[in-house]
Design brief:
Helix content: 55-70%
Number of strands: 3
Radius of gyration: 26 Å
Low-confidence stretches: 6-25, 503-562
Distance between the termini: 50 Å
Strand content: under 5%
Structural class: mainly alpha
Strand order of the largest sheet: 1-2-3
Order of helices and strands: EEEHHHHHHHHHHHHHHHHHHHHHHHH
Shape: globular
Mean pLDDT: 76
Oligomer: single chain
């Protein structure tokens, strides 16, 4: 009876759901290929703590919106605020200056190179920049008692440093999360970046409203950002480097394996060896600079697509309009301003959540095209309504508020969330730091320009022109996505690179590597005929050494047992 007793099977919630088991006190999800296994809590930590940076990106939108309100209501002639009050140009400069700091940070990262600065280091530096930048912004008001010029200088420096944190976190979050995440969950987890930005926006609005009645309450709003920045620093400190970055930077393979086991205990040395082989094929030894390799005619396609998605995200205008959305809504909502702002934030959050949970089912192209189409429709309607001389009308206009909410939802569903997923997927691992730096430098330049331009346009030509401009750029975005952006759903990062290059000739600097691999293949076939040891039978030859047992790799970096 004991001999024939059936083994208990792990129950499933429903067909197709992953099974789980308890392993040494940790919840490990195991289903299908070992590369898709993961430990739940380490995976959550690997996404949550980096996304504190996204929360602080969105927090700046909400906090700055209430700073503008404080500037408009200011009657204290002893501070720098009275000088800024009547100048839309200065307000636009203060809004845009943070993106200058972000651009400088991305230029520094590009100059240092991907082998020097890991995504984890960038996140740690971003946390420091957020904390110190918030301190400078909040203390600028106190220093105005000494000199209004000194207070304004501290505000600008604080905005610059905070902006450096924005650039570093936006540069680091997509590659870190995409390289840590299992293939089947990559869209879900990378989509959390936009969710974190939306949560930060709501949090900034909420803190600003709570402190609105306080004297100079906006300066206390930025102190909350300091607390989040400190939490981000200590949270990221416990996380390992990305295994792919360790392999691409030339670290010993045992370090990459240990880092991979933080999330996926089922990966073996052979998985890391295969990862190294794929990365080396993407980045062979060459005297060419990173920029020259990115601009190679046969490898520039993913760079062009990534840059194009960034351009579409920024020229559609929402990132810039968010700085001024409070004033736009206040003219339409009347006494229900707080309710309208909360509803707008919740609608944006719901759009980000929809993208996060359904992107791995819908893919990347469908939400991009659908969301941009929605933005075109609602921006057109808003333009037509404002042309009916609504700029001079006060009161509650629910159709206009709904159009603004649906516009925000469409943005979050499309370029708001999908852009960060694509930036983590499109670029080859060895050149990802340099490619992302170029993309985010473009992002910062466009964001700064749009923040300044839209602020001036609202004051000079009115809201109708702004919404019409956003409608035109959304239409251009639909055309670009439909004609250019590929589908990356369900593919590993290495498979995405192969899809980009399969229709092209081999780049010039890869020809020698292909020849060496061919020669290595001939040597392997000859040697296997004369020697049939277990290492040759069990493990394949690689393009960077003899046939080897990956488990036998020693900790001094010497690989393989021939």
């Amino acid at each position: 009876r004991r001999r024939h007793k059936k083994k208990r099977r792990t129950p499933r919630l429903r067909r197709g759901m992953p099974t789980s088991r308890i392993d040494e006190g940790e919840w490990v999800v195991q289903e299908g290929d070992p590369v898709d296994h993961f430990k739940v809590w380490p995976l959550i930590a690997s996404v949550l703590f980096p996304c504190f940076g996204g929360i602080l990106v969105g927090f700046d939108f909400g906090a700055f919106a209430w700073m503008i309100v404080a500037i408009d209501d200011n009657e204290d002639f002893s501070t720098w605020m009275i000088e800024v009050k009547d100048s839309s140009t200065l307000v636009g400069i203060i809004a845009a200056i943070s993106y200058l700091g972000a651009a400088i940070a991305c230029i520094v990262v590009y100059w240092l190179g991907g082998s020097t600065v890991s995504s984890r280091k960038e996140l740690l530096f971003a946390a420091v920049c957020y904390t110190t930048g918030s301190l400078g912004e909040s203390e600028s008001q106190n220093l105005s008692s000494l000199s209004s010029g000194l207070g304004f200088a501290f505000l600008i420096i604080g905005r610059l440093v905070y902006g450096a944190g924005i650039g570093l976190s936006l540069h680091a979050m997509p590659p870190y999360i995409s390289e840590i995440a299992p293939v089947k969950l990559r869209g879900l987890l990378c989509g959390f970046i936009e969710v974190s930005i939306a949560l930060g926006t709501i949090f900034g609005y909420a803190i600003g409203m709570w402190l609105e009645e306080e004297d100079y309450g906006w300066k206390y709003t930025f102190k909350f950002a300091m607390v989040i920045g400190i939490g981000m620093f200590f949270g990221v400190l416990i996380l390992p480097n990305s295994p792919r970055w360790l392999v691409a930077s030339g670290s010993p393979l045992y370090e990459a394996l240990e880092a991979a086991h933080f999330v996926n205990p089922s990966l073996t040395s052979e998985n890391i060896v295969n990862m190294k082989r794929d990365i080396e094929r993407q980045n062979p030894p060459t005297d060419m600079s990173a920029f020259q390799r990115l601009m190679d005619p046969n490898l520039r396609t993913p760079v062009f697509v990534g840059m194009g998605v960034i351009v579409v995200q920024q020229i559609t205008g929402q990132a810039a309009v968010l700085y001024y959305i409070r004033d736009m809504i206040s003219s339409l909502a009347g006494d229900l301003l707080i309710l309208a702002l909360v509803l707008f934030g919740l609608v944006k959050l719901s759009g980000a959540l929809v993208t996060m949970f359904f992107m791995d089912r819908w893919g990347r192209r469908f939400p991009l095209i659908g969301g941009l189409t929605g933005m075109f429709v609602f921006c057109t309607l808003l333009c037509l309504f404002y042309l009916d001389d609504l700029d001079s009308v006060k009161g509650f206009h629910w159709p206009m508020l709904l159009f603004i909410d649906f516009w925000g939802f469409s943005y979050s569903v499309s370029v708001g969330g999908v852009t960060w997923v694509l930036l983590g997927e499109l670029f080859p691992a060895p050149l990802k730091t340099e490619a992302l730096s170029l993309a985010l430098i473009l992002f910062c330049v466009l964001a700064a320009a749009m923040s300044f331009i839209i602020g001036v346009e609202i004051e000079s030509v009115g809201n109708a022109f702004v919404w019409g401009q956003c409608a035109v750029t959304a239409f251009v975005g639909v055309y670009f996505v439909a004609s250019t952006v590929p589908e990356t759903k369900g593919k590993t990062l290495e498979e995405i690179q192969k899809d980009f290059n399969q229709d092209f000739d081999t780049p010039d600097f890869l020809v020698s590597v292909a020849y060496d691999e061919e020669e290595s293949g001939h040597e392997s076939s000859h040697s296997s005929a004369s020697h049939t040891g277990p290492a040759q039978d069990k493990y394949p030859r690689t393009n960077y050494g003899a046939a080897m047992d990956p488990v036998a790799e020693s900790k001094d970096g010497v690989t393989g047992t021939p």
